[in-house]
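Narrative of accomplishments. A recurring question from our advisory board has been how the design workflow behaves on a single, concrete structure rather than in aggregate. To address it, we present the structure tokens for one chain from the evaluation set, followed by the sequence designed for it. No filtering or post-editing was applied between the two.
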């Protein structure tokens, strides 16, 4: 989650506190008069600061220090959002269009022109996301209603969009389908890029998959979830 901070702010946030502590202690203890004592003091300050960051920022449970601190109004918008928890919503997939083209090519259905493909209604399915986050770690897990598949993120990152002034969540995931159909596969890659609405507590955006890409069955669509 630290990656959402702009570089200058991140450097200031991580470097200035221990530097200030070191200078203050050096003045009070006159450790700067001795190079060896100054080096020893710097090591102690740095070690103590790293320990503080680990204790303060690690873990995702509600009672973790950083999550308690993040309840202060305005902190999440100023630094980065606490996305921990369960999110439920729907996907709207282009699968009906993909299936129509596939069945026509494979001659499973009589070829015919029923209208523009971009006018075929999207398929709605329920989805549930579980997001686990700390200062140093971010994981997104998903459950799908239509296939019973589960997914877990391979990489995930929250970004601050300076131009639009909003947080955006992007992640790459592996999806496992326990009983894949002929048009599916047991394991495939996918990706999603979602926009966070902090007022409505929703994540909304697009996703796409690599499912059975050689047969042209890789899908894409819309995804919207709300915090439960």
């Amino acid at each position: 989650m630290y990656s959402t901070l702009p570089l200058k702010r991140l450097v200031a946030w991580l470097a200035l506190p221990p530097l200030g502590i070191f200078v203050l202690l050096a003045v009070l203890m006159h450790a700067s008069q001795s190079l060896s004592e100054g080096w020893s003091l710097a090591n102690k300050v740095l070690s103590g600061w790293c320990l503080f960051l680990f204790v303060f920022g690690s873990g995702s449970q509600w009672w973790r220090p950083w999550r308690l601190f993040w309840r202060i109004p305005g902190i999440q918008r100023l630094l980065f959002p606490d996305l921990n928890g369960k999110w439920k919503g729907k996907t709207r997939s282009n699968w009906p269009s993909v299936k129509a083209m596939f069945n026509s090519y494979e001659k499973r259905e009589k070829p015919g022109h029923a209208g523009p493909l971009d006018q075929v209604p999207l398929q709605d399915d329920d989805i549930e996301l579980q997001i686990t986050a700390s200062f140093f770690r971010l994981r997104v897990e998903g459950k799908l209603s239509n296939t019973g598949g589960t997914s877990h993120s391979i990489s995930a990152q929250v970004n601050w969009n300076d131009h639009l002034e909003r947080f955006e969540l992007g992640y790459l995931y592996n999806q496992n389908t326990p009983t894949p159909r002929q048009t599916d596969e047991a394991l495939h890659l996918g990706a999603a890029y979602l926009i966070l609405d902090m007022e409505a507590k929703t994540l909304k955006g697009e996703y796409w998959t690599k499912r059975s890409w050689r047969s042209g069955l890789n899908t894409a669509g819309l995804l919207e979830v709300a915090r439960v």
